[in-house]
Specification:
With 390 residues, the chain is of the alpha/beta class. The protein is built from twelve helices and 17 strands. The chain is elongated, with a radius of gyration of 25 Å. The protein binds NADP nicotinamide-adenine-dinucleotide phosphate.
Amino acid sequence: MIATNTTSPSLRPSPCPALIFFFRARQGLGLRLGALKESAILSTMNNHQHEHYMSRCLELASQGLGHVAPNPMVGSVIVHNDHIIAEGYHEKYSGPHAERNALQNISQPSLLSESTLYVNLEPCSHHGKTPPCADAILEAKIPHVVVGITDPNPLVSGSGIQRLREYGVNVTEGVLEKESKELNRRFLTYQTKKRPYIILKWAETSDRFLGPLDGQRVPISCKESQLLSHKWRTQEAAILVGTNTAELDNPQLTARLATGNNPLRIVLDRSARLSQNLALFDGSTPTLVVTERERSSLQGVETLSLPFNSSLLPQLLTHLYEMNIASLIVEGGGYTLEQFVEQDLWDEARIFRSSSELGEGTRAPLLSTKLLTSSTSSGTDTLAHFRNKL
Ligand SMILES: NC(=O)c1ccc[n+]([C@@H]2O[C@H](COP(=O)([O-])OP(=O)(O)OC[C@H]3O[C@@H](n4cnc5c(N)ncnc54)[C@H](OP(=O)(O)O)[C@@H]3O)[C@@H](O)[C@H]2O)c1
């Protein structure tokens, strides 16, 4: 759904001096000329063009995956006469926002007053780590802004768009809304559910086992799937496994086969029985141990003490939210994955299915086939993708 609005309510907040100048310049003759220019621009832009430029914003934004969390991934393009004259994206957490980067990259600032700025997320209106982008757009005298989705962050939540409209900027909303939501599903879940976006990931045999009963470590997925798993690790803020998996498989849970950041390693260790010799405690990258004990004797780890009852996972997720962890990938084992599924605490599941058989072992969780969204090849495996509550 696309909505455009140019209303200018009579009540306005106190603007900064540059904005007062801009606003006054838009009164009288200035306003009439400005309005003429805006309507000319709007009449020449159709939905197809809006979608074309918004899709470029999404493409740019996606380069922030794994670098900007818990911030959203945002891209912006500035268009003049159906040509992109500048573009930018939010490149790293605490760095400049997409709109500022796009404005920074402009070579002919005189064109800005006849241009349209596209951005996949509503421009911010608050002073965070950087000044408000809505003000930067107003100061640049851009008459038309096209937005993908509004920002659910309570500090913004429509006020960025409202601020632009209050100063006479024409704002078109809802362009590629579905795609914009999809790209920022981690951020939107983190903001609205006050917990990380949860991805369950496992590899299962064709007879649906995760591993053998004797505790031997048996690789199930193929090399291509393992490389993909490591790439996925660079995209999420944290990774979690249960106690038995840490003990039996001795995983490193790093992204060493890919290029990018390691996620925070999290391991459940109710009775503090895990040995210091495990790879998870090698100090190569931070590890959080969740235990029922007051403290863990493990060296070089952070400890979180929580009661191991039915509220363990909700409490843990609240802690992760408070630690600014916007996404979590859960990599097993069976019991741990099952707890997330039973408590309906998951958003996405990625399952590698190999052609091998085990006959018996640790059962893989079973998800409703109604939630299956795609089934593709990954080397010799099949990769099944599920979404919770489509
Ligand atoms: N194929 C794959 O993708 C894959 C991935 C990982 C693991 N695996 C395999 O899976 C097997 C291990 O799975 P598993 O089911 O035995 O063990 P697991 O899920 O790794 O660990 C289970 C243990 O973790 C603790 N725990 C986990 N979630 C809890 C919760 N919500 N509340 C309370 N305690 C919780 C409990 O420890 P306490 O008993 O101390 O309370 C529980 O017994 C191994 O064979 C491993 O190789 C396969």
